[in-house]
Write a structure and sequence with these properties.
Two copies of one chain form a homodimer. Helices cover about 30% and strands about 20% of the residues of chain A. Chain A is of the alpha+beta class. Chain A folds into two domains: about 150 residues, Nucleoside Triphosphate Pyrophosphohydrolase; about 80 residues, Winged helix-like DNA-binding domain superfamily/Winged helix DNA-binding domain (Arc Repressor Mutant, subunit A). In chain A, strands 2, 3, 4, 5, 6, 7 and 8 form a seven-stranded mixed sheet that branches. Strand 1 of chain A pairs antiparallel with strand 1 of chain B. The first copy, chain A, binds a DNA duplex through helix 5.
Chain lengths: ~250, ~250
DNA sequence: GCAAAAGTGTTCTTCGTACACCCATGA
DNA sequence: TCATGGGTGTACGAAGAACACTTTTGC
């Protein structure tokens, strides 16, 4: 391999191209981000987003998915490209531009993926200084996430199949960094028409409380669970201009 | 120069990197897009977006601005990166990824820029088949433009300093592809607080009609002109989360 | 003079917001 | 039993949508 040091030659200089992934996960209380610790220079030991060099026979998205699988064993359903970073000096080795993606994963997808490698989840407020310009990339990712939530019901990608209304509310609050009134939040979400009550709610309500006595900690007659209506949900996610108010 | 054919060598293969610009302009009736005719193969003679190869000492945005100046003599105030296209086969010559930008320019900025070169404005409904994957890039640019208009008062970048309310409405309608009620549109826009009446309105109203008799075709006492309040306008453009309704 | 564009206000309805009480759970 | 979290409904105000008439201009 080392004898191929100048194997690829071009008439004009070419920058190197990488991809990086900002992966978000919701732990029920706040947003978390996945970082990997660099094992080599530059920035050896520093934390960075998973990613790597683009190969010639793959698209950037394929590259991002491949690197993510290799480094964190994650395979998100949907990657969203949000920006390409091209500052001349952003990598000390050579000219490197990076195409950045973000993705949202359920907590249940994650278990087992993060123990083997040097990957770790960090709470949003607990993020160390990152390698390269990844601090900047991260800020841009957060902005992109907030923008996206205006157009698409992003949240459900981050929650389990069944969730409570307070769960959903906490998620929105932690992404947008604001507080909502419980009742108004629920009203707004419900009238989007993409939620339905979980069937398990009725059982609990009709039978004597606690009689079911399985998953839940004790026999609670309240504590409603919701799920999204897949068909409506997909419609909403696809429909780009479902919010027309210029 | 020709002896430097293999002057740039890398251990691993690098794709070439280009930028492309989708430039929009509003002619008072509908949106137009700026295209240049290719003078060389591949796709010689076909229309494409202005753009070119990234140099090693410039950021992608600088590259886009430089190519735009060279090919169309335009210098937009603000370029917005919206997507990077990386399909493996998108360029028949070699592996090329392109970082795409869009920009909005006033019609008055354009005059004189398009006659010397092979650049031309095309109405949105009148666009020929484009070189490379530029048809696809164009579709993505339109979507990005529509999204942007939800967050920022994009329109004024496309209008002259003074404009009538119907002008502004036509612009919004042509971007979003919908029709609005005149009165409701005006109400909504005005209460954003970024518009003020042109001083020239009062003159016309108080003096006998036609007495001024200069620019306008005849002495019209009506036909109000508006301008935006620069300070408020900039606030709005900067403020990312001015629309919080999840 | 006639058709088409543009200026102007009001009403109704919908949506957003503010707000209070009860029950269930866990300490 | 007490504090906390979570379930539920109402009343008010603001914003959006629907809508008609008059004046000006260009043909």
């Amino acid at each position: 391999m080392s004898e191929k040091e100048t194997a690829y030659s071009y008439k004009h200089p070419h920058p190197a191209v990488t991809t990086d992934c900002v992966i978000f996960c919701f732990d029920g209380k706040e947003l978390n981000v996945l970082l990997v610790q660099r094992g080599v220079e530059p920035f050896k030991g520093a934390w960075a987003f998973p990613g790597g060099f683009l190969k010639m026979d793959e698209s950037a998205e394929q590259c991002a998915l491949r690197e993510l699988k290799e480094e964190t064993d994650l395979t998100p359903e949907h990657l969203e490209q949000f920006h390409t970073f091209t500052e001349v000096d952003r990598d000390p080795r050579e000219r490197v531009i990076t195409i950045a993606y973000f993705a949202l994963v359920k907590k249940s997808e994650v278990i087992g993926g993060d123990d083997a490698s040097e990957a770790r989840w960090f709470k949003l407020n607990d993020i160390p200084r990152l390698a390269f310009d990844h601090d900047y990339i991260f800020r841009k990712a957060l902005i992109a996430l907030k923008e996206k939530i205006h157009f698409e019901p992003i949240g459900f990608d981050l929650l389990e199949e069944e969730f409570s209304m307070p769960d959903l509310q906490r998620l929105y609050e932690s992404i947008l960094g604001v507080k909502f009134d419980r009742r108004n939040f629920q009203k707004k979400i419900i009238q989007l028409g993409i939620l339905e009550e979980s069937p398990s709610n009725e059982k609990k309500a009709s039978s004597a409380q606690g009689s079911k006595g399985e998953g839940v900690k004790s026999g609670r007659s309240k504590n409603k669970k919701w799920r999204f209506i897949p068909q409506k949900y997909e419609e909403m996610k696809t429909l780009k201009n479902f919010r027309l108010e210029f």
